[in-house]
Design brief:
Number of helices of chain A: 0
Strand content of chain B: over 45%
Structural class of chain A: mainly beta
Oligomer: heterodimer
Radius of gyration of chain A: 13 Å
Order of helices and strands of chain A: EEEEEEEEEEE
Largest interface: A-B, 26 and 22 residues
Distance between the termini of chain A: 37 Å
Structural class of chain B: mainly beta
Number of helices of chain B: 0
Order of helices and strands of chain B: EEEEEEEEEEE
Helix content of chain B: under 10%
Chain lengths: 113, 112
Amino acid sequence: DAGVTQSPTHLIKTRGQQVTLRCSPKSGHDTVSWYQQALGQGPQFIFQYYEEEERQRGNFPDRFSGHQFPNYSSELNVNALLLGDSALYLCASSFGRDTGELFFGEGSRLTVL
Amino acid sequence: KQEVTQIPAALSVPEGENLVLNCSFTDSAIYNLQWFRQDPGKGLTSLLLIQSSQREQTSGRLNASLDKSSGRSTLYIAASQPGDSATYLCAVRRGGSYIPTFGRGTSLIVHP
């Protein structure tokens, strides 16, 4: 049973560039949430996708956008990268309209120079 | 707005000790509470999920309790081992919301 998989694991970008991160949910899960985690902090919620639509969004600018595909996988896009976007980006999956237990991937470490 | 606090922020103990990690939340109208473990630079591993109607959950050497009226959950780790060294986070999901609020975690070091 495959867990949540994320790619790439590490990447380095420069200010102003754009980045796309990918996530495949745990088998049987249909809901994907994205989080940003700075060093020493708890994960901060970016947005959640269910049935290919953004169901809820956290306090992040429009530079952060996403998409969910029919197979429930998801992408996180960040445009016009800033130094402050450097963080660990985590994807979590869960099942159903009423999300219960969350399962996380290993994350994508983004460094912006 | 739900606020989640974890105390202590860091803990260093010798191997074999029994530990209690604390998670406090401000809004008692919760749906569930989940404890996670995070190794440095890695993702979060789910340890225990407690639904609002439950008082505790157990898995191996781990036991998590929930007291909604006092806004607290504790994670009890029995007979700690060096392999338990990690950051432990709690996430509290309020009723009516799909999104949990995370604490900043407790960084645990168990030394041989």
